[in-house]
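call fold(seq) -> C-alpha cells
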Amino acid sequence: MQTAVSSNSSVSPAVGFEALRDFIARALGSQGLPSADAAKVGELMAQADLQGSDGHGVIRLPQYIKRIRAGGINLNPDIRVVSERAACAIVDGDNGMGHLVVSRAVDLAIAKAREAGVAWVSTRYSNHAGPASLYARKPLEHDMIGLYFAVGNANHLPPWGGMDMLLSTNPIAAGFPAGDEAPVVLDMATTVAAYGKVKAKAKKGEMMPEGWMIDRQGKPLLDPKRADEGFLLPIGGHKGYGLALMVGLLAGTLGGAAMGRDVVDFNADHQSVTNTGQSILVIDLSAFGDPAVFKASVDALIQQIRDSERLPGVERIWLPGEQSHDRRERYARAGIPIAAGLFAELRELADSLGITPLVAGSGV
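ret:
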C-alpha cells in the first residue's frame, strides 16, 4: 500500500524502485527532456539510490531542474565522437545530461575493448552523472573490467597546505567481475567524504563526523549547513591531494574538460556550462585469457579475504561493493528509504512541476 507522508514527519519513508525511477523521468520530461532520455536518466538516478548512493540519486533532482530551467543544460544535445583511434576516443557531450554523455562513452569503450582488448574514452562538455560505480559496473556485464575517473562538479579541496579550492572530490571507481560471488566494485572520492554525502547529511538533519571538513582556521567543521565556510579533507593527507590532482588531469585535462579555476560550481551557478570531464577505461578479460578462470580466481581471493582472521570485535570483513550489493537486494524488496526532509522537498517540486507526486510504499 502506498501512502502520503506528512512534511513534518521525521520518519524516512520507503519508495519502490520503479516508482522512484518513473517519478524522476516524469519530472525531467515535464521540463522538455525527451522521453527516452528522461527514462534513461531516471533509471540511473534511481539505481544510485537503490545501491545506497543517496548523495547522487534523487537528492540531485531539484538541482538538475534548476539548471534546466536556467538554461544550464542542453536538453537536445548532439553527443558525438570528436576524436577517435582504435582503442581511444573523446566524446563531446554538447552540455547534455551527464548520465547520457557518460553512458555513451561507456558503450563506446566496451565496443572498442571488444576489438582492441582495452579502450579509453574521455568526455568533455558533460555534466554531473551520479555515482562513479554505475559506470564502472557496466562493463562487468560483458566480462570486462571497468575503471572510471571524473572531475567533480565543484571545487571543495585546496592543494595540500593551501586555502584556494582548486580541486574537487575527483572520484575513482573500479569494477571487477567475479563468478559466484558479487563483483568487486570500488567507488571512492579522493576526499575523506564526497560532497554529496555532506548534502545528504544536511537533508537528514545530521552532523558530519570529525575528519570530513575543516574551516579556514583549520578547526573541525561538523555542521553540513555551514559547509561553505570550509573545505573537504583529502584521503591520506598529501597523498590524497596528489591523487585528486592525477585523477583530474586524466579525467579533465586530457580530454579538454575543465580543471582548476575553470571548474564551475554547479551548486551555486545554474546557468554556466560546466564542461565536466569523465574517463572510462575498459579491459576485456578475454584479451588476457579465459574470463571464467579470472572470475574463479576472484571468487577464491574473495573467500580468502572474507575468511581471514579478524581483529577483536570485528564481525565481518567486507569486500568493496558488498555493502552496496546487499543494499540493492534489500531495497529492491522493502523499498528505498528517502530522508523525510528530501521527501517533503520532492512533493513540493512535484506540485511546482504539475506532476503526480512521489508516494511512500515499497511498490513491489
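The chain is about 35% helix and 15% strand.
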